[in-house]
User: Fold these one by one.
Assistant:
Number 1:
Amino acid sequence: MTITTDSPLEERLIALLRHLGLERAHFAACMPRDWVGLLSAHKNAVASLTLMCPMGIELAPLSANPPPVLIVTGDQGRGGVEAIRDGKKIAAAELVILENYFSPPWADVIQDRLDSIGDAMGRFIEQNGFGEAKHVTDGASQSGQCAGITYACRGSGEPLLLMPLALSPSQWQPLIEQLSQKFCVITLGGAHLGMVAHLETRAQSSYMRVIDQLLDELQLQPGQSLLEVGCGPGAIVRRLAARTRGANPIVGADVNSYLMAEAKALAKRDGLDGLIDFQPGDATALPFEDNRFDCTISCTVMEEGDADRMLGEFVRVTKPGGKVGSVTRAIDLPRWVNLPLSAPLKAKVDSAALFGGNVTAQGCADASLYQRMNQAGLLDVVTLPSWASHQDGERLEYLRERIIAQLTPAELAEWQGAYERGKADGTFFVSEPFHCAVGRK
Ligand SMILES: C[S@@+](CC[C@H](N)C(=O)[O-])C[C@H]1O[C@@H](n2cnc3c(N)ncnc32)[C@H](O)[C@@H]1O
């Protein structure tokens, strides 16, 4: 099997299985993009599928003779409600509901509910064993990279491939010791999987126009330093580093060590290592002295924690006269879905509520950003709400899937006709709104 830069993820996963001497394995994932293609094209390779706090469930590949499925989800928030609703539609699915648990993509679910998840997964995989084992005798020789996917194997038993857990800070780490007592646990990573792939895809879309607007407003001069807090896999700091080529000291900070490791690998891939200093750091207690940076920015981070504390920290580490800028999602504004639909369906698919939720109680994903920036003491706050429009690519597909997952069968039939026409004549696009502001300290 030849893997090229265009090879889809499922072919990469099959190449990895073969590389490891495997025909089948148990899989555990969170994001549909990681498992849908594999299950659609290579169902026999999937002995069982565990969906951990799924960020959406695609029902089609699970409708005809699917493998056994275990769905673990919190019962709070949009993701939990949707996972429970969709899980009940899958005949082969066992549902484990974590009571009183909010499981947005950044939930540290394994760390938070270790015992119940460990027990449920261990039992489920044992019950659905297929009688093939893999033995890892030399831990050091069992990690590497194949087809652009990094892997690390531990333990002996039926192979269990763990795909990344969205933005979870601890990922699967707290559970690996326990699972590796019974199974050969193979942890996967790299730019083609999980939230890294998701955010890299977003960074190839017109989301970057929203970001460019923010960067332009900073008017960064040669020699001035910039901190991006919550840089994730680092698409924004890489973009800036590629433009400034060392003329500006650039620091990327994030609380998630898995994403930081991936960010370093991606910077190296792009020949930018040495131009970006990646540092672990919590936005609510940044490990930097007062007045250190000329500019401090965050992009879709203030949704995930205490927004005012974060802003306070951004202001603290910025020099007097320096700039603080932030982009957040805008769950208080409707989308624009460009299809000729009946008025009720158009209102539903455009509705802010369809994409709402996934914001912590003290987070910010609305126009309160502007007031918060004023209250944080920033001056001359420039307000730049703007839209990212998607006419093609993976981001459009992601948004389309999220919309159709929430339609009734009658709405879906109407949608499908309009969608086919809009796709054929090139007029289908989805625009999503963001709030953005830049102020001076
Ligand atoms: C949606 S991603 C955005 C990544 C990047 N800024 C971009 O726009 O592509 C949110 C990022 O914020 C990080 N994050 C969330 N809470 C944080 C905190 N308290 N301190 C630092 N980083 C945080 C997450 O780990 C994640 O990498």
Number 2:
Amino acid sequence: MKGRIWNRATTADLNRYPPEAVFEAGERNHHVSNTSYPIAHSSVWKPYRVGRPLREQVVSRAFQGVDDLCLYVHIPFCEARCSYCEYTVVGKHEMSETAAYMQRLSGEMAMYRDLLDTRRRTLHGFDIGGGTPSFVEAELIAELLGNVRASFRFGPSCGISIETTPRIAALEGRKLEAYAQAGVERISMGVQVIEPDLLRVLNRSGNGVEHHNRAVENIRRAGFAKFNLDLMYGFAGQSLESWRATVEHAVSLGPEYITLYRMRYKLTRISEQAPRVRLEAVHEQAALAKRLLADAGYQANPGKNTYSRIEGDPGTSDYLTRRVVDGMPYLGLGLGAQTFTHTTIGYNDGAAGKTLTPYASSVEAGRLPIQDLYDLPLTHMMAKMAAVSFYFGEIDRASFHEKFGIALEEAFAEEVDFVLERGLMRYTDRALSLTAEGARRFNGVIALFFAPSVQAYLIDRDPDRADDMTRNLAHCVECRTAGRDETGIRGNDWIRFRLQC
Ligand SMILES: C[S@@+](CC[C@H](N)C(=O)[O-])C[C@H]1O[C@@H](n2cnc3c(N)ncnc32)[C@H](O)[C@@H]1O
Ligand code: SF4
């Protein structure tokens, strides 16, 4: 905590709103009141944006005293773009740029090596995410790992995790062996759903069940003993029976961990479907999965998305675990990657546009490829840590105190009383944890820990009229020029939402 200085809050972040009103607004806006904090960052974080000339200086200051951190490296390539996907993935015309991209990644890493003297800092978790990192050649991933090892110290328990798809894992087993040999110890594969009709609607037919058995064989043959499967629920038209079949199928593949993602519609190509998904249906799906997984020996605390069948192992990558439990700072490298310190949050070039050009130009010009950097007040940094903590359904009280120099109960006095009195959260060993009822009412509970400007946004937001969920038809500057539909996108947003094509 020593020496941390937070930016001053604007008046919008000094207001207080009654917990009842915030809780109700979070539940009403259940499609957006979730861990993707701060929901409306182009407006609520605008006052805290750091101008380009000051960025290096603010980044250096923010990393002062940060000896322990995690690393995230983003690989934005995929075989095809799934229509539900919210991540930074480049368009078809840039899919062949893998080697040049990996070269620029190493250029970005070299800039941080010089600026932050990263060789004297220790990593406690390292994720290679995407996109689909296994889309690129195995040699390029091995080179990346070598580069990271030469640029940072590795803590004794720093695990490395990577993501793949069923098709690649089934057809390119050699890549998996190369990862294991290079020291990657955890692998995560997206099954999402198994119903062929739904996979087709999601533009994911190429990753159907026909690949699953071979994929698992290859993963095990390569020696991975930490294997996670991702599943998704909350799709329009996804019946309870089809979801049951997906969960049962996932269990039959025998992974150590299964992570359940509730579909987040914001800024996806199928965002217009959100109003068709009722909260009660989502609750039924979550409850069914919990029962089926418990019967199969997979456990998770209320509100936690990753279920593990290994006692004492939370199932998440070390990168995510340290982020959630300790609020540990992390450096994000690559297109659109996010960086989090104790006082700042940054997004790399490409986070909005999802195209390689600005990122490539920055690295080639020797500039940190940062699109937006926010020097935040305490309220927002506390809210970000709390929001991320809800991946585990609880906020670690000691870590919160250590990070911010104030007890959770002091920072959120009324809110903590509110959740305790209503039985939504309770004290466990080190944490304030969701109860089963709190997990059901997650969208309301999480909003209680948001900063006032974000709470005000939710209180004012009418989910039936919100245009941030309905811009899927109007995709990019090219579409506008070609006279295609422009639903819901205004002004500069055109540039920000080029991604959708
Ligand atoms: C980086 S992605 C995918 C990794 C890999 N490319 C794949 O498709 O399996 C990590 C996970 O995020 C989840 N995900 C993607 N888009 C999402 C969205 N809009 N809402 C919630 N979860 C999402 C999916 O379960 C996905 O497997
Ligand atoms: S879900 Fe995976 S494969 Fe599909 S677009 Fe997103 S990152 Fe790519």
